[in-house]
Design goal:
Blueprint lengths: L3 E5 L3 H13 L3 E5 L2 H11 L3 E4 L8 H10 L8 E5 L4 H9 L4 E4 L4 H25 L19 E6 L2 H12 L5 E6 L15 E5 L5 H13 L7 E6 L7 H6 L4 E4 L4 H33 L7 E2 H13 L7 E9 L2 H8 L1 H17 L6 E4 L4 E7 L3 H17 L15 E9 L4 H24 L5 E3 L6
Parallel strand pairs: 1-2, 1-3, 3-4, 4-5, 6-7, 6-8, 8-9, 9-10, 11-13, 15-16
Antiparallel strand pairs: 12-14, 12-15, 13-14
Helix pairs in contact: 2-3, 4-9, 5-9, 10-14, 11-12
Length: 465
């Protein structure tokens, strides 16, 4: 995996040795010896990861991390602290200062590289999600993790229920997250409708390597863990598995007895990252929905309806061979806007959209494709079924009393509908031309309905495929 890594260390020998190791692993490595120089390089490079060794003379490690987090473009860049002493107090202090991970000397090179790869995967996934979701500093996506939107959900998976419950009790005393316990191998889904865990803590006993890796693979493949983070707890005698577990998708691995303060901080950091990704995913889904949904009526829009229609015409499903298309246009709609205002017009459009949506079958599509023009697609419908449906729509809309704010009398509106029949199972090459012909025929039928006095239905001829 390639990536830009900035090493910040006051000791030149440390920087050189680490650079050689990382360059051999195909990372693009840069160095800085002082805090000010490190900040300048970081702003210029925007690295994918920062490694902080011996604190620079002009700035403490904690101050440097805080300065990085204060820069919008650097706020989410992972920071790894290399410690000269491997004590729980030192690790906790580094994590509290804002480090994403802590690696103690002497460094196991294989595990260190696996940790860096895991952090880079998470960071690049977050960057890709942010890019797809679009820029939105106001929503907090350019800021560093540090403030949880809500308490997280942690599920502990242990080889025995007693061990899992014991760890749950200890962890509940060290953090404010919701913690549950499940025996390894039991279903990990919560109560029906309950959200999945943000983090799964997989405690791996001193067992055969293949069995431990199999446990990790099964958890990673579980649908309930699809978006969750996995933190593995290993006994000392199994610490050789750390690199393999990280490369299999574990977000973090802790080998040896777990200090509860350190574990709580590490889990909180994972939950922060998970919630940031969840926010971006939700915004991405909202953006996709906005691209397909008419914001006024909540119906599908033209951008969604046209591919849907083409798919019907090209689909080789062995089922129904035809479908019906209706173009419905409100009669004299401009008069409502002119006499009652555009707010009243919007209310009429929304009411008609609700009537259309509630008057067709579940498999049918209703879309708003113009100002007061709607498209209804009925898969599998023949001419008589389409005619009955169109007549029903005309009647329901014409009989509706539409209450308007500030008006003592309800508004009334009628609709004209043109219907055309299409063929399915045509294949990709013919489908697009066929859809264009169907829509043209439906439009001609709609024009004839308008010419006949409106508030009526006209069936078009079946166009040639």
């Amino acid at each position: 995996m390639s990536g830009i890594i900035l090493i910040v260390d006051a000791v030149a020998t440390n920087r050189i040795v680490l650079k050689v190791k990382l360059a051999a692993a195909h990372f693009d490595v840069h160095q800085a010896s002082g805090g000010a120089a490190a900040l300048a390089s970081a702003r210029d490079l925007v690295p994918d990861l920062v490694i902080l060794g011996a604190a620079p003379r002009d700035m403490s490690g904690e101050a440097l991390i805080a300065a990085l987090r204060a820069c919008p473009d650097l706020a989410s860049v992972p920071v790894v602290v290399l410690l000269s002493e491997n004590t729980a107090a030192a690790r906790v202090a580094a994590l509290k200062a804002g480090a994403d991970d802590v690696i103690a000397q002497p460094v196991d090179e294989r595990v260190m590289l696996a940790r860096l790869r895991a952090l880079l995967r998470q960071h690049l996934a977050l960057q890709d999600m942010r890019l797809n979701a679009g820029p939105d500093r106001a929503a907090g996506f350019g800021e560093a993790p540090g403030v949880l939107l809500r308490p997280g959900r942690i599920t502990i998976l242990g080889p025995s229920m007693a061990e899992a419950m014991a760890l749950r009790t200890r962890l509940r005393g060290a953090c404010k997250h919701h913690v549950s316990a499940v025996q390894t191998g039991a279903p990990i889904a919560g109560a029906q409708g309950a959200p999945a865990a943000d983090v799964f803590v997989l405690t791996i006993p001193a067992i055969a390597e293949d069995t431990a890796l199999e446990l990790m693979a099964e958890l990673r493949a579980a649908p309930e863990a699809r978006h969750g983070r996995i933190v593995c707890l290993l006994p000392n005698e199994a610490r050789a598995l750390a690199a393999s577990l990280l490369d299999m998708g574990a977000s973090d691995v802790i080998a040896g007895p777990a200090d509860m303060s350190e574990l709580a901080l590490r889990l909180t950091r994972q939950i922060e990252r998970k919630q940031a990704v969840d926010q971006l995913r939700a915004r991405l889904h909202d953006g996709l929905r906005a691209a397909m949904i008419d914001p006024l009526t909540g119906l599908y829009n033209r951008r969604f309806a046209m591919p849907f229609l083409k798919g019907l015409a090209s689909r080789q499903n062995g089922g129904a061979s035809g479908f019906a298309v209706m173009l419905a246009d409100l009669d004299h709609f401009k008069r409502i806007n002119d006499r009652m205002g555009h707010a009243a017009g919007d209310r009429v459009l929304c009411h008609v959209a609700d009537l259309l949506g509630s008057s067709v079958r579940e498999v049918d599509l209703v879309a708003r494709i113009g100002g007061e023009e709607f498209l209804i697609v009925m898969p599998g419908a023949d001419g008589s079924e389409a005619r009955r449906a169109a007549d029903r729509l005309c009647r329901r809309i014409g009989e509706a009393d539409i209450a308007l704010r500030g008006q003592t009398e309800p508004a009334h509106v009628t609709v004209s509908i043109g219907v055309a029949l299409g063929e399915a199972q045509l294949g990709e090459a013919r489908a697009e031309r066929h859809v264009e012909a169907i829509l043209e025929e439906a439009d001609r039928a709609l024009y004839r309905a308008k010419a006949r006095g409106r508030n009526t239905v006209t069936i078009g001829a079946r166009p040639a495929a």
